[in-house]
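Entry type: protein chain
Record version: 2
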Amino acid sequence: MSGETGPRTGRPSGRPRRSSADVLADAAAELFLEQGWSSTTVDQIAQRAGVSRGTFFNYFESKADTFWLDLDATAAGLGDVLRASSGPSTVRRVESALVQLAAAHPADRVPWALTQSDAMGLGDDLVASAAVRLVRIRATVASFLCESEGVPRGDVRSEVAASCLLAAASTAVVTWARAGVRRRALHEEVAAALAPVADGLARADRPVDA
């Protein structure tokens, strides 16, 4: 959902029919804007979407999950993209995979939770729901780095590298979402944020006498 245009309406030509998850996410966004996050219940979201409470929980574990419908769908493919990636080092493979995922994310699907958080009164709930996702994604990247380097899971260098790369990528997503009409392509924002971090990690791994 675009943060500039409000909840999605209609269906652009060529786009697949909107799923129940889309309808629920839009209903949640409308209600959060109308009456605030804390005053909106799951029952109200389901009623606005024209579905049952049970249907809501078929798609989302909580109302906070409606924030991230599109980004969750994009991030779900991270493991496969990492394994299929190529590059001169594991860090460069992660960099390439994250940029590739960003390029695959639909340009018009800007997370409304990042663009209208103040109007919706999201506050700490936005931070908490984002943190859960970052921890999950960081774990995927760290595991890939450890396996690719042949080091034990939990290796400190791999863990630090994963944290640095994800911090850069997540900052790029926030910057992209909040840029408004000045917004450039997401993959360009992610690539620009990752490049200096990947360069630094690559230098750290290079032998001193190289």
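Comment: The CA atoms of residues 68 and 140 lie 18 Å apart.
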